[in-house]
């Protein structure tokens, strides 16, 4: 990132005298910073745009950028495990949860009473 800023500053500094000599009042309005991979050509700058290219190896073309590859904030886990964790955490505030908080939580109280009745009936039939 620091190299890119230095290159950008150098490009602007080098372009400034040329603009002053040609009678341009302002430098170009746009500045593009582009990553190019392998032997891909860098787009040429125009009168109204400065293009700064950062060349990367061909192996990096389809990879997730290095800063995003590994998370430092949490333990790496699969999407299925994350979804299951989210379901467990939010179960108490979902509809049919028999809770006083959340959206329509009281709708699950009748279901909870029926399930409790079935469980006690099954337990009494099984006997001691």
How would you describe this protein?
This protein is α+β, with helices and mostly antiparallel strands and 128 residues long. The protein has two domains: 65 residues, no CATH class; 57 residues, no CATH class. It is 43% helix and 12% strand. A two-stranded parallel ribbon has the order 1-2. The model has no long low-confidence stretch (mean pLDDT 77).
Kindly list the characteristics that best describe this protein:
single chain, 128 residues, alpha+beta, two-stranded parallel sheet, elongated
**Shape descriptor:** elongated
Walk across the major sheet and give the strand order. 1-2
Structural class: alpha+beta
Let me know the number of strands. 2
- N-end to C-end Cα span: 73 Å
Mean pLDDT: 77
Give the helix proportion (percent range). Answer: 40-55%
Helix-strand string: HEEHHH
Largest sheet: 2 strands, parallel
Radius of gyration: 31 Å
In percent, how much strand structure appears in the residues? 5-15%
As for the number of domains, it is 2
- So how many helices? 4
Catalogue the unreliable spans.
none
Q: Briefly, what is this?
A:
This protein has 128 residues and is α+β, with helices and mostly antiparallel strands. It has 4 helices and 2 strands; from the N terminus they run H-E-E-H-H-H.
